[in-house]
Structure formats: C-alpha cells, structure tokens
Amino acid sequence: MPAEAASLQVKLSRKLKLQLPSRIPKKLAGGSSGVQSPPRADGVRNGDNHNHERTKRGSKSILMDKKRIFAELPRSPSSSPSRSRSSSKRKQSLLLSSNKLLGEEGSDGPSRSMWVSGGKAGASFQAKVGKTRATSLTLKTEVKDTERWNAGKQKSPAKKHSMDSSGHLVQKQGVRAEVPSSTTARRRQQEKRDAHGDHPEVKDDQPKKRKRVIRLDPHDISNKRLDDGIVVHETIKEKKMESQDSVEISKNAQFRAIQPGPSILSFVEDNLLGRRRTIELRRAGYNTELSAPLDDIPFSMSSERERIEETIFRNKLTFFAAAKVSSSFPPPEVPEIAFAGRSNVGKSSLLNSLTRQWGVARTSDKPGLTQTINFFKLGPKLSLVDLPGYGFAYAKDEVKDAWEELVKEYVSTRIGLKRVCLLIDTKWGMKPRDHELIDLMERSQTKYQIVLTKTDLVFPIDVARRAMQIEENLKASKSIVQPVMMVSSKSGAGIRSLRTVLAKIARIAKV
Ligand SMILES: Nc1nc2c(ncn2[C@@H]2O[C@H](COP(=O)(O)OP(=O)(O)OP(=O)(O)O)[C@@H](O)[C@H]2O)c(=O)[nH]1
Ligand SMILES: [Mg+2]
After folding, report:
1. I want to staple 492 with a disulfide (CB 3.0 to 4.6 A). Which of 158, 295, 455, 468 is the partner?
2. Which atom of ligand 1 is nearest to the CA of 349?
3. What value of ipTM does the predicted structure carry?
4. Is residue 150 very low, low, confident or very high in pLDDT (cuts 50, 70, 90)?
C-alpha cells in the first residue's frame, strides 16, 4: 500500500504540475496581504491557501491535500483515497465559497480555477459542476476569459495588479484595461447585471454615477437678468417704502407742529371732545351709562327727546325715500341737509345721534352699508339726507363708481339742498376723494361744512390740530362754511353745537 500510494502521489504531482497556472487570483486563494507575491514556479503562491500554515507545510503537502480544478475541463476523478465526510463537507463549502468568488469576479476575474481537495472531493466537485448546468456553463465561459486574460497578461507584463482587498478596485481596473476587446459585450452584460444589483460588492467598485453638472449657457443671461431684476425691484421697493415712510413721518411731524388757535382749543375743552377718561366725564356730571352721555340728556329715550334744546330735532325722524339714480329723487319740497363723506366715516350714526333716535338710519362697522341716497323727514320743514359713502367699501368697483356719481350729481344739482355736512374722520383727515367732492361743490356753489367725526378716538389736542389744519387748508374755499365742527356720535360730544348750527339753517331756509 505505501508503494501504491507513493506512485499515485508521484502521478498526481506530475499531472498537477502540468496544470498549474502561472497566476492564481489572490481572492480565490483567500490572501489578504497588501503586496502580491510573485508566482512560484510550481504554480503555488504563498498566498494561495486559506492560511499560511498550509504554505508552511510546503508545496508538496499542499499538493497532497489540494488539487487545482479547471472548471472548463472537468478532470476525471482521480483514484485518490476516500476522505472522511467532514473533510468532504469542508471541501464542498470551500467549493461553494470559491464558486461564489467566481461569480463575484465575473468575466473580469483573473482566474477561474480554484484549489480544492483532490481525489474524491474533487470528483464530487466535478460531479456537482456537471449537475449544475448553469454553473458549469458560467465556469466554462469564465475560464475562457481567464485564459485570454492570462494571455493578455503575458503580452503586457509591465502592468501590475494589486490583489489585496483594499486595492481591489485598482486590480479590477487594471484587469479591465487588459481584457481584450472581444469580451467587451460580455463585460457590458456583466456591468448590466452589476447595475441590477447581482453583485453588490462589484457594484460598489463601479465608478459612481457622476453628479449632474448644471451647465451654464454663456449666452443665456436670463437668470442673471432675473436675479438682477429682483434685486433692482427690491431696492426700488425698499426705496419707495423708505420715501413713503419719510413722507409719512414728515406728515406726522407737520401735524404735531400745528398750533391750534385759542378758539378751537377752548371749543374742544368746553365740549369735552377727544378721548376722555370715564372718571373725568363722571366728575363733570355726565352719566356714562347712557348712550352719547355728553349730549347732556340724562336718558336716551323717546320721551326724553323733548329735552333736546333745538325744537326741530325733537321731531320724529322718518325715512321716506331712497334713490339709486337721480330720477328717483323725491321732489324738493323742504330744505335738505345732506351728510356726505367716505364710507364708514359715521354719516348714518350722526343722523341718529343728532335726533337721538338710534337705529332709524342703519349703521354698520362694515364700510358700504348705505348704498342708496336715503331721505329722512325731520318734521314738516326739514329733510336729512344720508348719502352713500365713497372710497373703500365692500362692493364692486362699478357699484362704488355709480354711488360716487350719484352723490356728485346730488350735491351739484339738487334743488333745496341747503348744506352738505362733509364728514371727515378726525384720525385720518382729508383724503383725495374728499378734495374731489369739495372741488365739485366749489364749482356748483353748494354750501358745505366740515364735520370731524369719531373725535372720541383721538387725543383732544389732535382734534384741535385736525380742525385747525382743515381750516387752514380750505381758507381759500368760497363755498365752505366755517367753523369746522367736531363731534362724536358715541360720546355725544359736540352734537349740541352741531344741532344749533343746523337748526339755524332750517329756520331761515326756504325751498
Ligand atoms: N368711536 C366712534 N365710532 C363711531 C362714531 N360714529 C360712528 N361710529 C362707528 O363707525 C361705524 C360706521 O358708522 P356708520 O354710521 O355706519 O358710517 P357711515 O358713514 O354711514 O358708513 P357707510 O354707510 O358705509 O358709508 C359704526 O361701527 C359706528 O358705530 C363715533 O363718533 N365714535
Ligand atoms: Mg351709512
């Protein structure tokens, strides 16, 4: 038996020496050192085995244990002695891992051979390869590639490969460079598979997708223009805002610089105009629980109307006509006093406050409630006319324009119109549309009087300043009736004074 074994060993050695490749992929050999060892003459490299111990035992002992199997040319199983099951399993696992490695390497791999146990194990491997048709085919083709690769290697020996795991990419790139052009199609296929995630390890080695680079068209200056435009617009806007602010500031400064005359100041104080504390009103003897307490009527009830100092305002206020167009105006039978002004300035409220009949003329905090010219009779000798407001209102522009035209027509053509009370919000002062109406009344020689409203919302000094400001502005006006009146429908301040002025009109007026 020892003699047989020795002869068998010799035979195997010869056979295997013939089959030994010039190079063996390090990956297959499981090597991990960073430097590739030069191939040995007998085809066995120091790093070809899974550990260095085997290498130490020498090439002979390795050959005893291992046999290089070429996948494309399955060798007939040698008549090596049978091995234990565990050994066989170990070889199979080695085979599987090797197979896996082959798969990972793809067509670019430097070798498709592997070291497995000789004898029965090798035979079993061959049988397995034979059984697994797909695997066999792959191996076959890959071995062909390996041969070509080796040939290529020999042609260009100057090129080196780093076989260590850290330099895997370098090796693969090198191999790629050496793969002949006939394998290009296959390589593309492999790359496709890699791209589909068949071999994640290899995929990692693939050059990563280039980031999209946004190319700038040197002739396209739209972006720049857009940016520039925005910047320019912003600066213009900012400048505009700044200039507006400065104008506003200067306007406020100008307003604060107004020195009201002594008559205006005393009027404001006598009538307790402006924002006042409740305690102050109480101390002055007014019942702050009542509506419009400064009107100096203790109870705001119908029976109390008898206490109104101006007899004409003791009459019942009755609505009798509404007009959307001038043709709907009622015939001018009695003198009329109209209340005009911007929307929400307090026209309807003033009518109620003057007559102390709350709710006859409808009011709302929503601008644009009064949309028709409403005619109210205050006794047999006077009519009070509530006009729709102009300026901002919750209505369509066409509708608002129609109101404005109607108001203009009324104030400029109405026979029997004795006075237009032009109401101005004390806080905001006169606006361009107010001036428009003034101009119209000036042209049509309609008498008008400025009435500052909502005086309870501003400081007494500002009420005086506003009155003074308007008086100064309209000094040259011919149709204006001085003085500027100041009222508050809420507190009742200045209402009695206004009644006195308006009652005089009623007394002397004839249609
Ligand atoms: N604080 C205060 N609020 C007032 C005064 N006069 C009226 N108001 C309020 O201002 C709002 C508008 O009042 P209106 O009388 O409806 O005003 P208008 O001018 O008739 O409004 P339009 O009919 O829309 O043109 C309402 O909420 C009133 O309560 C006032 O003297 N002081
Ligand atoms: Mg109104």
Report:
1. 295
2. 15
3. 0.99
4. very low
